[in-house]
Amino acid sequence: MIDQIIFYTLAFIIVAMSLMVILARNAVRSALYLISALLGFAALYIRLQAELLAGVQILVYVGGIMVLFLFVIMLVSVRTMEHQARQTRQWKAAVVIALGVAAELIYLIVRGGSIFVTKQPPDALLTKSQNTQVVGEALYSTYLLPFEIASVLLLVAMIGAVVLAKKKI
Amino acid sequence: MNILVNYVVIPLVKIVVIVAILSGGIAYLTLMERKVIARLQHRLGPMRVGWHGILQPIADGLKFIIKEDIIPIKADRFVFTIAPGISLVPAFIVFSVIPFGPPDSLWGTGGYVTDVNIALLFAVAVSSVGVLGVILGGWASNSKYPLLGALRSSAQMVSYEVAMGFGIIGVLLVANSLSLVEIVEKQRSMGVWFFFVQPIAFLIYYFCGMAETNRLPFDLPEAETELVGGFHTEYSGFRFSLFFIAEYANMITVSSLAVTLFFGGWLRPFSSVAALSFLDIIPPPLWFVIKVLIFLYIFIWVRGTLPRFRFDQLMRIGWKVFLPVAMANVMVTGAILLKFL
Amino acid sequence: MEHDIFGAIDEKTVLDANQVVINMGPQHPSTHGVLRVKLTLDGERVIDTDCIIGYLHRGTEKIVENRPYAAGVPYFDRTDYVAAVSNNLGYVECVEKMLGVEVPPRVQYIRTMMTEFQRIASHLLWLGTHALDIGAMTVFLYAFREREEILKLFEALFGARLTIHAFRIGGLWQDLPVGFLDACRRFSDTIGEHINEYEGLLTNNRIWLERTRDIGVISAQDAIDLGLTGPVLRGSGVNYDVRKARPYSAYADFDFDIPLGVHGDTYDRYLVRIEEMRQSNRIIQQCITRMPTGPIRAKAPRVIKPPVGEYYHSVEGPKGELGYYIVSEGKTSPYRVRIRPPTFINLQALKKLVKGHLVADVVAIIGTLDIVLGEIDR
Amino acid sequence: MITTNHYLVLAAIVFTIGVIGVLTRRNILIIFMSIELILNSVNINLVAFSYLLKNVVGQVFAIFVITVAAAEAAIGLGIIIALFRNKETIQADEIDLLKW
Q1: Is this complex scored with an ipTM above 0.95?
Q2: What is the pTM of this model?
Q3: Residue from D4, D25, D39, D83 to probe the interface with A (highest A Cβ count within 10 Å)
Q4: Which of B222, B245, C159, D44 makes the best surface tag, with the fewest CB within 10 Å?
C-alpha cells in the first residue's frame, strides 16, 4: 500500500514535470521542471535500493549538469525569443509518430511482462550500507575497461568543451 | 502500528525539534556574528534591543517579515518567488543525516533523524542543489548585477564542489563508510579524530566550505562593494531573509560536517583516554554544539580579517591549488592504506 | 562608440552576444559618491569605460564669483568635503597672495599643522573605504576610529567637524584653545602605532597583495602626460610635491620626506599614502614642538579689494595639487574663480587604468584614485 | 503491488515525452533537456532490472549513462555557445545550412 502510494506519487511527479519540460515557454522554466523531474528519478532510485545512484544523480545531474544548463541559458539570453513560436512546423506529425512508438512500447511491455519474474518484489537487493561498496567493486573489477573509457570520454568532452567555448586559446 | 511510530512519528518529532533549534540557532548566529565582528572592530555591536542586544534577532526577523516584498516588474515572477526557497530548503534538509549524538541516545532512537548508508554523499549532493536558488534568483531578477552574481556563483560553487568532494574522499578511505554515524563511530574505535589523520583534507574541506557558503574571502557572488549585493540585489523583505537564512544554515552545515568528519562529532576530546572521563559530564550533543560553535567563530573571525579575492584568483585557487592538493591527498592516503593496512 | 549625454545604451551593444554594458553608479556602494561609470564588459573583463559626472554639480565657482572674497571660503569646504582644511588653505592663501598680506608665523604653523591633520584624516578615509571596497571591513572601522579623533580636534579649534570654514583671510578665527597642543601631541604619539595596525592587516596580506599588485599600473611618463598629481603621481615614482616644489605656508621650515612608489600600481599608491601619513605626523610633531607665539591675525583690509590681475596659487592637498586661479577686476568679488581639482584630473586616468582588468579591479582602481565627487563635479 | 512492469511503463512514457520534446521544440536548449529526459528514462529501466535481478550491473550502467550525459552536456552546451556566437540564434529550424 505504502509502496503504491510512493510509486504513483513519484510517477505522477516525474510525468507531470517531464511534460512541463517540453511545454514550458521559457527555457529557464524548462530547466526548473527538469530539475524537479530529476529529483523524482532520484527518489525512485532510492525506492529501488540504488542509493549510490540516487546520490550521484543529485550530485551530478542537479548540482552539475543543470547548473551548466542554467549557466548557458543565462549566457544566451533566451528572453528575446519568448514571443516566437515554440514548435517546429512538423510538430503534429512528430507527436503522432512518437505516440505511436509509445503505444507500441507499452503494448510490448504489458504483453511481454510475463517474461520477467514479477511476482514478488525481491528482498533487499543488498543489505544496508553495502550498495556503494558493491557498485564500486563492480566498477573497478568487471567493468574496469568501460570505466576507464568513460574517464577518457570525460576528458575528451572537457577538452572539446573548452575548445568550443573559448574564443581564443 | 510500530512502523508508523518508528518511521513517521519519531522522525517527525526529531525534525520539528531540529528545525526549531536550527532556526533559533541561525537567528542567534547573526547576533553572534555582529557581536564578534563588533568586538574585533572595537565596537559594541547591537546593544539596544534587550540586554546587550539579546533580542536583536527577533527584532530583525520581525523587520524582515513586515517589510514590503518588492518584485521588480520585469522579473520572472514565478522563478523570482521560488528561488529563495530553492536555496533554503536544501540547507535544512542536510541536517536530516547529521548525527548529533550516539546511536543509543534519545531512548535508543539515535541522536539523528536518520542514518542512511549514503549520508555523506547525500549531504554533499543536497547542499549542491542550493546553488540553483542563487542562480535562478540572480537570473529571475532580470537585472545586470544579479546576473553577474549568478554567473559568478554558478562557476564558483561548481568548481569548489569538485575540490571539496576530493577532500572528503580522503576521509572516506580512512573511515570505509559513507554513513556519518559510522564515520564518527570509527573515530571512536580508532581513538583518534580524523583531523589528525587527514589534516590536509580538513583544510581543503573547510576552505571550500567557505567558498560554497559565499563567505569572505570568497563572497564574490554577493560582493556588495562590487556587485551591490550580487544575486540578491533585487530582493527585499522576507524573500531576502530567506537567502540570508540559507547562507547561515549553510555555514552551520559546513561546520557540522567538518565536526562530524574531522573532529569526532559528538565525541568528547580524547574519547579513548579513560582518565578524561570526567569530561563526560557534558552530554554528547553539547560537545557537538561546542565544536560547531568554534568553527562558526572561525568563519566570523575570517570575515573580520581578510579582504576579498578577485574572481579569476578565486578560480585559480580552486582549480590549481585545492584540487591538485586534494587529489594528491587521496592518492597518498590510498597508497598508505594499501601498504600498511 | 558615441554616446549621448545621458549615456543611453545603444541597442547594438546590448544585442552583441559577447558584450554587456553595465552602469556602475551613480548609486553604487563603491563609486565614492555619485560617480557613474559605464562599463562595457566581455564576461567580467572591462573593454571600455565611460565616466559620466556632474550629478553633484552645484556651480561653486560661479557662486563664489558673486560673493565677497571672504564669503567664498565656506564654499570650498564643500568641494572636497573630506579635506575642507586643505581647500580653505589654498583659497585663503591665494587671496592673501593677491592682497600681498604676510600672515604671522603662528598662523602659518597652525595652518600647516591643521592641514597635515586633514591630510591624515583624508588618507584614513581613503584607506578605510579602499579596504572596504576590496572586502576588508575591519580596517574601515579602525581608520574611522582615528579619523574621529582628528575630527574632535577640528571641532575644538574650528567649531565644526566636516565643513569647517577653517581659516580666515589674513589669519584665524580664534587662537588654539587651552590644552589643544597636548591633545594634538597625544594623537600624534599614538597614530604611528595605529598605522602599524592597519599595515598589519593589509601590507603583507596575500589576498591584499593579489588584489592590488599590478592592478591599474600607470607609468611615470603616462602619469605626467595625464597631468596626474598627488599620491597617484608619486606612486609611479615621479617626485613632485607642491610642498617641496613650491613651498607655501610654513612647509619650508620642516623636515619631511616625500615617499615614492616604483611600479605605479595600486599597491604602490597604497604604500605611498600610508607613508605620507607617517610623514604628516612628523610635520605635526615638529609643529607642536616649535609652535611660535604671536598674533593670530595679519593686518588685512576690512573690505577685500585685490588689485586687478590674475593669480594662481596651489597647495598640496591630500589628493594632489589643489590650485586656485582667481581673476580680479579690482572689485569686492572676483571676476572668475577656477579650481584646479586634483581628483577631477586624476579621474581621467581611470579609463587607461581599468582597461583589460576585471570588474572587481574597477572598484579597486576607483578606490586607489581617491576621488571625491564634490570636487569633481564642483 | 508495484512490479517491474510499472517501472517499464513509466520509463516508456517519459521516453516518449522526451522524444516529443526533441521532435517538436525549436529551442535547442529545450531539445537538449528532452534528451536528458530520454537518458533518464533508460536509467529507470536499468535500475528496475537491477532491482529485479538482484544484480548490480544495471546500476553500473546507469552510472555510465550519467557519465555520458555529463560529457554530452559539456560538449553540447559548448556547441550551443559557439553556435549562438556565430548565428545569434538558438532556434533549431533557423540553423538550416545543411537543408536543400
Answers
A1: no
A2: 0.82
A3: D25
A4: C159
